[in-house]
Amino acid sequence: QVQLVESGGGLVQAGGSLRLSCAASGRTFSSYTMAWFRQAPGKEREFVAVINWSGDNTDYADSVKGRFTIARDNAKNTVDLQMNSLKPEDTAVYYCAARFRALGMTRQAALYNYWGQGTQVTVSS
């Protein structure tokens, strides 16, 4: 089992940047594929980015590609999401998620085993 805690959310103007961090505790962090999802009010949870256990393979939603970067540090048990050129439509609660690495990378939220509590990101226009 792994516990996930997100941090770094806040209020930022359009065009600005934020860096989210997810700290993991419990089982060996490198045992997991890690991802970020987000959920805006009244909308379903949507995929943002995923990174494999070693950090050398990533995938991004089209809506964030070129603006967001996911990275992990297995020595520190963290996965970060650097968000640049933020837009009002990026406003959402952002969640960190983990799934066993043997299962591979996926964009489907239902296939992740563990979730953090979420951190709010608000982008003003």
Plain-language structure description:
- The protein is an all-beta fold and 125 residues long.
- It is 0% helix and 52% strand.
- The chain has no helices and 11 strands.
- The strands form 2 sheets. Strands 2, 4, 5, 6, 9, 10 and 11 form a 7-stranded mixed sheet that branches.
Write a brief structural summary.
The chain is an all-beta fold and 125 residues long. Helices cover 0% and strands 52% of the residues.
Can you give keywords for this protein?
125 residues, mainly beta, seven-stranded mixed β-sheet, four-stranded antiparallel β-sheet, 52% strand
Alpha carbon gyration radius: 13 Å
Strand content: over 45%
Counting H and I runs of at least 4 residues, what is the number of helices? 0
Instruction: Provide the helix percentage.
Output: under 10%
Low-confidence runs (pLDDT<50, min 5 residues)? Answer: none
Order of helices and strands: EEEEEEEEEEE
Quaternary structure: single chain
Our measurement of the CA-to-CA distance between the termini, rounded to an integer number of angstroms, reads 40 Å
Largest β sheet strand count, sense and barrel closure: 7 strands, mixed
Mean pLDDT: 96
Can you tell me the overall shape? globular
- Number of E strands: 11
Alpha-beta content class: mainly beta
